[in-house]
């Protein structure tokens, strides 16, 4: 992920949600390492945070909730096969409607 791509993603996330680029930048550092371990992309995390902010959840709380959710996915995946972990991650994506190719995920 280039800095230009990250910047574009943050811009789209801020535009689609009720957040700012500054709030996203300040809050994402806590969730990105967990998301990477769960196989969830930067774009998907920003889309999920953006979607949560449209529901009135503040950006820091949204990232905390996503971090907790993904931690649970990782714990569950550690107890199951890699196929189950992939299924759990796919379920998270479906539940949050977060997809790097789905521009509507940030609206």
Task: Walk me through the structure.
With 107 residues, this protein is mainly alpha-helical. It has six helices and no strands. The chain has helices spanning 3-16, 21-28, 32-38, 42-53, 59-79, 82-96. Helix 3 (32-38) packs parallel to helix 5. Mean pLDDT is 84; it is low at 100-107.
User: What is the helix content?
Assistant: over 70%
| Mass-distribution shape | globular
Which class best fits the helix and strand makeup? mainly alpha
What is the succession of H and E elements?
HHHHHH
**Tally of individual helices:** 6
Low-confidence stretches: 100-107
The first-to-last residue Cα distance is 22 Å
Mean pLDDT over the full residue set: 84
- The tally of strands reads 0
Tell me the β content. under 5%
Largest sheet: none
Using the CA coordinates, give the radius of gyration: 13 Å
Short description:
With 107 residues, the chain is an all-alpha fold. The protein is built from six helices and no strands.
Give the helices and strands, then pairings:
Blueprint: H1 3-16, H2 21-28, H3 32-38, H4 42-53, H5 59-79, H6 82-96
């Amino acid at each position: 992920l280039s800095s230009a791509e990250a910047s574009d993603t943050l811009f789209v996330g801020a535009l689609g949600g009720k957040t700012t680029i500054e709030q996203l930048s300040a809050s994402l550092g806590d969730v990105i390492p967990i998301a990477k371990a769960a196989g969830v992309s930067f774009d998907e995390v920003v889309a999920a945070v953006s979607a949560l902010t449209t529901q009135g959840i503040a950006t820091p709380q949204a990232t905390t909730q996503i971090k907790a959710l993904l931690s649970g996915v990782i714990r569950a995946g550690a107890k199951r096969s890699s196929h189950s972990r992939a299924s759990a991650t796919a379920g998270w994506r479906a539940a949050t409607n977060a997809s790097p190719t789905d521009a509507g995920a940030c609206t």
